[in-house]
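Please describe our next protein:
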Amino acid sequence: MGKVSKIFSAGVIGIDAYDVEVEVDISQGIPSFNIVGLPDSAVKESRDRVKSAIKNSGFDFPLRRITVNLAPADIKKEGSFYDLPIALGILSSEGIINSSEIQNFIFVGELSLDGRLKGVSGIVPIAVYAKQKGVKIIAPEENTEVEYTGVKGFYARNLSDVIKFFKGELELPPIPSRSLDLSKSNYFEVKIDDIKGHEFVKRALLVSACGGHNLLMIGPPGAGKTLLAKSIISILPPLEHEEEIEVMKIYSVAGLKRELGMRPFRAPHYTISDVAMVGGGSIPKPGEVSLAHRGVLFLDELPEFKRHTLEALRIPIEEKRVTISRAQRTITFPASFQLISAMNPCPCGNFRNPKKECRCNPSQIKKYVSKISGPLLDRFDMFIEVPALEADEIFSSKSTSETDSFREKVIEVRKIQRERYKEYGFFLNSEIPPSLQDKFLTLDQKGEEILKDAIRKFSLSARAVFRILKISRTVADIYGSEDIKTEHILEALSFRRAENFFNFDYLNF
C-alpha cells in the first residue's frame, strides 16, 4: 500500500511567489491519474510527461488510482513548475524515497519524456522566496539566473539524479552564489559620444537622466531622434542590487532574457496592442511598461500609436505600477520607467523645417498632432525640438568623451536626490508628490514672477507648472545649488519651448 506524500513547490502571482504543497495519494481502484487544485492546461498535461519520465528513468509507474492535489486549492496553478514535485510525490508514496530531508526543499522543474529536467519561466521569484524562507531549492541546470539571488540549493539534470541524491547515492552540483558586478555594465549600442551636434538636446538628455524626467523629442525624419533616445541608457547609473533582482523577477516571469546589470530599454512598435503595452491576458503577464521597469520606455513615432493604447499609459506613468483585475484575483506589476518619445511635427515630417518644404495642409497637421491627448502630453516634463543637422555637423570629425562625464554627473546628482528623499519613499525629483511641493520646490520672488509670466503667456496648466518646478530642482542639483535660482527656472522653461507644437494659437501655418 502507498501513502499520502507531501512535496513542497511554489507558484507565482504577479512577480511574487507563494507556497504550493503537492500532495499525492495512491490507492486501490481503477487505474487513473487525476490532478486537482485548479490546474491549468499546462499542469493537466504534466500527467503524460510525468508518467513517461518515471518509466524512462528506470522506475515502475503505479497502475493504481493516483490523486494529486495542488494546495491551496483556491488559487489557479499555471505553468510547468510542478512536473518534478509531482513525480517525486508519486515515487515517495511508492516508498522509493524515504528521506526526511526532502521536506527542506522547494522543487521546481519541467520534465521531458526521457526524464531530463528542463528550465522554467518564473523561477527567479521562487528562488528569492526560498531564500527568504530559509529553505533550499532543486532547480534545472538551465535556470542559471538563480545564482544571483543568493538562494541555497542544487542543480539537477534529470529525475534519476534527484532520486539518487535523496537516497545518498549521488552528489548534485550546488548552486553557486554569484554577485552582480553592475559597475562593469558598459556595453551600449549607442553612446552620447556617437551623436554629432545636438548640444542642446544632449543637455536635455542629461537633465532628463539626472531627475528621471519624461521627455518628448520633435523633429524631422533623419534628425537623430532615435539615436539620441537610445544613447540615454549610456549615461544612466548602473542598477542597484535590489533593482536588478526586481527586474530579473519581471523578465523571469515573462520568459525573456536580458543582459544582467543593464537598465532595460524597451522600444515597442506602434502597432502594439493595449495588453502588450500594459500587461494582462488570460494568464496575466507583464507588458512593455513593466519590462521597462527601472529603465527606459521609448515610443518612436508617437502619434502613430493607437489612441487608447497611449491613454492606457496615463495611470502607470503616475502610479509607477500596473494593476490587472480578474474575476479570481488582482495582480500588480511594477512599472517605474522613464518615458522617452519621439515624433515628427506633421505627417510628412517637414513642418517648420527650413530645409524642406512641408506638403501638409493645416488641417492635416492639426489632425496629426491632435492624436496625442492633452492629459498624456501633461505627463511629459520636457519638450525638445531636434533640428536636422547642418552639413558641417554631419561630416564633423570632432570626437567627444561626454558619456563618462555625463554618467558621473548623473550618479552624483541621483546620490544627492537619494539622500534628500530617503525618508519619503522615493528617490528622484520627477517623483516628488504635490504634497511636498512647498518643502522641496520653493522659489524666491523673482523666480515666482518669471513663472507667473510663463503661465500667462503659454497658458500652462497646474500640472505643467509643477513639472517645470521639478525640472528646475534637477537643474539646481546639477549645479550643486541648495536653492532653485532664476537661471535654473529659465533653463527649465527652455526645455518646454517645443510644447508650442501642440498649441495651434502659436503656430504660423
Q: What stands out?
A: DSSP finds 20 helices and 18 strands in the chain. The domain at 184-506 is CATH 3.40.50.300 (Rossmann fold).
